[in-house]
């Protein structure tokens, strides 16, 4: 059973910072891309940032320069440092990973989400 568990959500004021982390656990062979998505109330889930196993990041335009993504392959963990937070960043943030399991091949896995609330 593969699990992605997120940590680090919470309530913060406009301009503040939060750091999200997500660790993959269970029996698997390899992790390729990892990333973060978010879903605000009444809106569709959107990509925030992704990072390849080699460390190449991509970002949605609205977070470029504010939310650096990083990962520690030895710890099967991906991080999202959220700086200069705005009320429009309020959402449930979901961790995502492409994971290879022996016998099953590649699959997409999601965390349960962590709520980030930015007060104005």
Summarize the SSE layout with pairings.
Blueprint: E1 3-7, E2 10-13, E3 18-25, E4 30-39, E5 46-51, E6 57-59, E7 69-72, E8 77-82, E9 91-101, E10 105-110, E11 114-119
Parallel strand pairs: 2-11
Antiparallel strand pairs: 1-3, 3-8, 4-5, 4-9, 5-6, 7-8, 9-10, 9-11
The main sheet comes to: 7 strands, mixed
End-to-end gap: 40 Å
Rg measurement, Å:
14 Å
Percent range for helical residues?
under 10%
Average pLDDT value?
97
Q: What is the tally of beta strands?
A: 11
What spatial form do the alpha-carbon principal axes imply?
Answer: elongated
Measured by DSSP, the beta-strand proportion falls in over 45%
Order of helices and strands: EEEEEEEEEEE
- The helix count comes to 0
Q: Unreliable runs, pLDDT <50, ≥5 residues?
A: none
Alpha-beta classification: mainly beta
What this model shows, in words?
By secondary structure, the chain is mostly beta strands. It is elongated, with a radius of gyration of 14 Å. The protein is built from no helices and eleven strands. It has strands spanning 3-7, 10-13, 18-25, 30-39, 46-51, 57-59, 69-72, 77-82, 91-101, 105-110, 114-119. Strands 2, 4, 5, 6, 9, 10 and 11 form a seven-stranded mixed sheet that branches. It has a four-stranded antiparallel sheet with strand order 1-3-8-7, with no helix packed on it.
Provide key terms for this protein.
mainly beta; four-stranded antiparallel β-sheet; 0% helix; seven-stranded mixed β-sheet; elongated; 120 residues
Short description:
By secondary structure, the chain is mostly beta strands. It has no helices and eleven strands.
């Amino acid at each position: 059973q593969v699990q992605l568990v997120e940590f680090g959500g919470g309530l913060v004021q406009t301009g503040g910072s939060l750091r999200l982390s997500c660790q993959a656990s269970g029996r698997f062979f390899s992790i390729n891309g990892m990333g973060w998505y978010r879903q605000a109330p009444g809106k569709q889930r959107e990509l925030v940032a992704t990072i390849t196993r080699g460390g190449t990041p991509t970002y949605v335009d609205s977070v470029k320069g504010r939310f650096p993504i990083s990962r520690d392959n030895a710890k099967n963990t991906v991080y999202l440092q959220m700086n200069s937070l705005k009320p429009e960043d309020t959402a449930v943030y979901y961790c995502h990973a492409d994971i290879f399991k022996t016998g099953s091949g590649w699959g997409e896995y999601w965390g349960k989400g962590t709520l980030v609330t930015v007060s104005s």
